[in-house]
Amino acid sequence: MDEQKLRERVSAIADKRETLVRLLEQPNLGTLRIDVNQAIEELDDLLDEFNRTFSDRPIT
């Protein structure tokens, strides 16, 4: 996979982060809140690692 394709895929995943944050704000989430929180943390870790690897043009 070339770098451009990888950037497009990671960017598409990063765009979903806001959806997870909005979901976390729902009052009736129950125990699913733990999973959503973990998904956000793992997504943030993935983006940090990607940005360290490709530091010339980071994805936010």
What would you note in describing this structure?
The two termini are 21 Å apart. Helices cover 72% and strands 0% of the residues. The protein is built from 3 helices and no strands. The mean pLDDT is 91. The chain is elongated and about 40 Å long. Helix 2 (17-24) packs antiparallel against helix 3 (32-53). The chain has 60 residues and is mainly alpha-helical.
Write the layout of secondary structure elements.
Elements: H1 3-15, H2 17-24, H3 32-53
Helix pairs in contact: 2-3
Compute the separation of the termini in Å.
21 Å
Q: Look at the structure and give the mean pLDDT.
A: 91
Helix content: over 70%
**Number of β-strand runs:** 0
Please write the string of helix (H) and strand (E) elements. Answer: HHH
Shape: elongated
Q: What is the number of helices? A: 3
Q: Sketch the major β-sheet.
A: none
Model regions low in confidence, pLDDT < 50 over at least 5 residues: none
Give me the Rg, rounded. 13 Å
Defining key terms:
60 residues; mainly alpha
Question: In a few lines, what is going on in this structure?
Answer:
The chain is mostly helical and 60 residues long. 72% of the residues lie in helices and 0% in strands.
